[in-house]
C-alpha cells in the first residue's frame, strides 16, 4: 500500500495551523519543517538495524545501529527546500540530491530546470520532499529521474496530497511509498488543492 496518511495528533494540529489564510512566512516555514520531521519519523520506522556491542559507562552494552542503505533526501525546488531542515535534523548525515521542477501554469506539466544527484545515488534510499502533491506530474517526473539514475528504493514526504495525484502514483509507481499529513478533497480548475494550503512555494519564500 503506497499511500500512508499519518494521523498523529501533532501532525494534524500543525497542518490545521498551516491552513489559516493570513499565516506569516515565518510560521508557515517553521510548521513545514516541523511536520516534515514528524513524517520522517514514520517514513523511517522500517529501517533495518543491527545490534553491536560498545563500551558504555558501566562496561560493555549492546545497542542498536541503523544498517543497510543510507539515505539521500531529494527536495523538489523550490517548495521542497522548506521541508529539508526538519528532515536533516533527524538524519544529519543524509546526502542531498536536488531536483528543480516547476509546474507550467497553463498546461500543469512539470518543467525541469536543474538536477544534481549525489554520487552513488543508486545505492541510497531516496526520500523525496515536496509540500504539495496535486496532479502528480511533478512527483512522476521526479520518480522517473531517480529510477533512471538507478534508485530502487524511493519514498516521498508530502504535507498535503490530492486524490488525483495519489491515484496516479498508485497506478504508475506502486513500488513508491508516500507519507502524507493530509489527503484533501480535490483539485480546482487551475490545479490547486482544495482546501489545501495555497501556493506552498510562495508561502515558504515570501513571494507574491
Ligand atoms: O502535482 P503537481 O500538479 O505537479 O503540482 C505540485 C507541484 O507544484 C508546486 O511547485 P511549483 O510549480 O509551484 O514550484 P515552486 O516550488 O517553485 O513554487 C509544488 O511544490 C509541487 O512541486
Ligand atoms: O495547491 C497547490 C498545488 C500545487 N502547488 C502548490 O503550491 N499548491
Ligand atoms: Mg509554487
TrEMBL record:
It catalyses: UMP + diphosphate = 5-phospho-alpha-D-ribose 1-diphosphate + uracil. Keywords: Allosteric enzyme, Glycosyltransferase, GTP-binding, Magnesium, Nucleotide-binding, Transferase. Pathway: Pyrimidine metabolism; UMP biosynthesis via salvage pathway; UMP from uracil: step 1/1. One of its GO terms (biological process) is uracil salvage. GO terms for molecular function: GTP binding; magnesium ion binding; uracil phosphoribosyltransferase activity. The keyword Kinase does not apply. The keyword tRNA processing does not apply. Uracil binds at residues 193, 198-200. Its cofactor is Mg(2+). Its EC number is 2.4.2.9. InterPro entries: PRTase-like (IPR029057), PRTase_dom (IPR000836), Upp_B (IPR034332), UPRT (IPR005765), UPRTase/APRTase (IPR050054). HAMAP family: Upp_B (MF_01218_B). Catalyzes the conversion of uracil and 5-phospho-alpha-D-ribose 1-diphosphate (PRPP) to UMP and diphosphate. This is Uracil phosphoribosyltransferase. The gene is upp.
Amino acid at each position: 500500500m503506497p499511500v500512508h496518511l499519518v494521523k498523529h495528533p501533532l501532525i494534524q494540529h500543525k497542518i490545521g495551523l498551516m491552513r489559516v489564510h493570513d499565516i506569516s512566512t515565518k510560521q508557515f516555514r517553521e510548521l513545514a519543517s516541523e511536520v516534515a520531521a514528524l513524517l520522517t519519523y514514520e517514513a523511517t520506522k522500517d529501517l533495518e538495524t543491527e545490534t553491536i556491542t560498545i563500551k558504555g559507562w558501566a562496561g560493555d552494552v549492546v545497542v542498536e545501529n541503523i544498517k543497510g542503505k543510507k539515505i539521500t533526501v531529494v527536495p523538489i525546488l523550490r517548495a521542497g527546500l522548506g521541508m529539508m531542515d526538519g528532515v536533516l535534523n533527524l538524519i544529519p548525515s543524509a546526502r542531498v540530491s536536488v531536483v528543480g521542477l516547476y509546474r507550467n501554469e497553463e498546461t500543469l506539466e512539470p518543467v525541469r530546470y536543474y538536477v544534481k544527484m549525489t554520487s552513488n545515488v543508486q545505492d541510497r534510499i531516496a526520500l523525496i520532499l515536496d509540500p504539495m502533491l496535486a496532479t502528480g506530474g511533478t512527483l512522476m517526473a521526479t520518480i522517473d529521474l531517480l529510477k533512471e539514475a538507478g534508485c530502487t528504493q524511493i519514498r516521498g514526504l508530502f504535507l498535503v496530497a490530492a486524490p488525483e495525484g495519489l491515484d496516479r502514483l498508485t497506478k504508475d509507481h506502486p513500488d513508491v511509498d508516500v507519507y502524507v499529513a493530509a489527503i484533501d478533497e480535490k483539485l480546482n480548475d487551475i490545479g490547486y488543492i482544495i482546501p489545501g494550503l495555497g501556493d506552498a512555494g510562495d508561502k515558504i519564500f515570501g513571494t507574491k
